[in-house]
């Protein structure tokens, strides 16, 4: 199977999501500052700035770089952006396609969703230099997204009708299906033994939910923005999202159906359709995915 065909297989499997609909997305980086209880967002810079798909940013544990997905000529690979030098480097270069990279616990390898030559989507790992590919979860497929919950446990989005949330051991053991009709956002909540995800109700409205890493109980936090299912957490546990080009934060005092307060106008950076968000582990940077406006 050629590279273009493999990429189209993933796009078809995720039909209707922002990844398939935003081929000209870029990644923007903006400084974050806490001023008492407020979050101040500095000027955003386009760090990828090319025609095509640049998406799925994930910070390195030291906050000095970002792993992200690039699709070029029908091939998806993992690239790295260095914050200090502002340089981009290609990390993987394989006949397969790799998506959704993040550094694994321990900091020595990264995990990715790989579209294999027969179109199977499974979780793999690589060295941080893109070497030594290893299959992590052989039986769980097709996997679309994932988040590490501990050194030996992770949450996964498994494609299907409906999509399902699985919490599974890193060796493939103890695979627990925790929820149905989930969205693509999965996050370990900093400083807690809980994680967040989005889930659709009977009216297909997405809500941001939390669950403990171990246990079956779940809690509803807030309704996801109508135009953006993605969210992110700051190191101090502040929940962020974006809607209509505005960065927003969750306010616990407000009703769950409308509990968002504006933080910053990201659209002022010359972007539209803000989607994915990522906050650096040191809390100093916000990365977000958007489409540039104009030349």
User: Can you give the mean pLDDT?
Assistant: 91
| Computed structural class | mainly beta
Rg estimate, integer Å: 18 Å
Separation, N- and C-terminal Cα atoms = 36 Å
- Overall 3D geometry? globular
Sequence stretches where pLDDT stays below 50 over 5 or more residues: 1-22
Give a short synopsis of this structure.
The protein is mainly beta and 295 residues long. It has helices at 3-13, 18-21; strands at residues 26-35, 38-41, 45-46, 53-59, 65-72, 75-82, 88-90, 97-103, 109-115, 121-127, 134-135, 143-150, 153-158, 164-169, 176-180, 182-188, 194-200, 206-212, 219-223, 232-233, 239-243, 246-250, 260-265, 271-272, 277-279, 285-292. A hairpin with a 6-residue loop joins strand 18 (206-212) and strand 19.
Q: What this model shows, in words?
A:
- By secondary structure, the protein is mostly beta strands.
- It is 5% helix and 50% strand.
- The chain contains 2 helices and 26 strands.
- Strands 1, 2, 3, 24, 25 and 26 form a 6-stranded antiparallel beta sheet that branches. The protein has a 4-stranded antiparallel beta sheet with strand order 4-5-6-7.
- Strand 8 (97-103) and strand 9 (109-115) form a beta hairpin.
Describe the structure using short key phrases.
295 residues; mainly beta; four-stranded antiparallel beta sheet; disordered N terminus
What's the SSE blueprint?
Layout: H1 3-13, H2 18-21, E1 26-35, E2 38-41, E3 45-46, E4 53-59, E5 65-72, E6 75-82, E7 88-90, E8 97-103, E9 109-115, E10 121-127, E11 134-135, E12 143-150, E13 153-158, E14 164-169, E15 176-180, E16 182-188, E17 194-200, E18 206-212, E19 219-223, E20 232-233, E21 239-243, E22 246-250, E23 260-265, E24 271-272, E25 277-279, E26 285-292
Antiparallel strand pairs: 1-2, 1-3, 1-26, 4-5, 5-6, 6-7, 8-9, 9-10, 10-11, 12-13, 13-14, 14-15, 16-17, 17-18, 18-19, 20-21, 21-22, 22-23, 24-26, 25-26
């Amino acid at each position: 199977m050629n590279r273009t065909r493999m990429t189209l297989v993933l796009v078809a499997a995720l039909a209707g999501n922002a990844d398939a609909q935003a081929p000209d997305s870029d990644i923007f980086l903006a400084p974050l500052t806490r001023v008492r209880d407020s979050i101040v967002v500095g000027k955003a810079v386009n760090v990828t700035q090319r025609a095509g798909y640049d998406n799925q940013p994930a910070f390195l544990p030291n906050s000095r770089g970002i792993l992200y997905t690039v699709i070029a000529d029908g091939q998806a690979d993992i690239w790295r952006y260095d914050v200090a030098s502002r340089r981009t480097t290609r990390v993987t270069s394989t006949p397969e396609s790799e998506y959704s990279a993040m550094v694994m616990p321990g900091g020595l390898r990264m995990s990715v969703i790989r579209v294999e030559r027969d179109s199977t989507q499974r979780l793999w790992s690589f060295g941080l230099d893109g070497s030594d590919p290893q299959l992590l979860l052989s039986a769980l497929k097709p996997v679309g997204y994932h988040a590490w919950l501990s050194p030996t446990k992770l949450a996964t989005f498994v494609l299907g009708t409906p999509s399902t949330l699985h919490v599974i051991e890193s060796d493939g053991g103890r695979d627990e299906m925790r929820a149905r009709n989930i969205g693509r956002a999965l996050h370990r909540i900093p400083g807690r033994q809980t994680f967040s995800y989005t889930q659709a109700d009977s009216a297909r409205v997405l809500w941001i939910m939390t669950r403990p890493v171990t246990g079956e109980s779940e809690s509803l936090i807030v309704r996801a923005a109508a135009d953006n299912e993605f969210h992110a957490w700051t190191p101090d546990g502040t929940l962020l999202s974006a809607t209509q080009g505005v960065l927003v934060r969750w306010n616990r005092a407000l009703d769950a159906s409308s509990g968002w307060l504006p933080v910053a106008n990201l659209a002022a950076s010359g972007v539209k359709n803000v989607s994915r968000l990522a906050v650096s582990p040191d809390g100093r940077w916000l990365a977000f995915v958007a489409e540039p406006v104009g030349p």
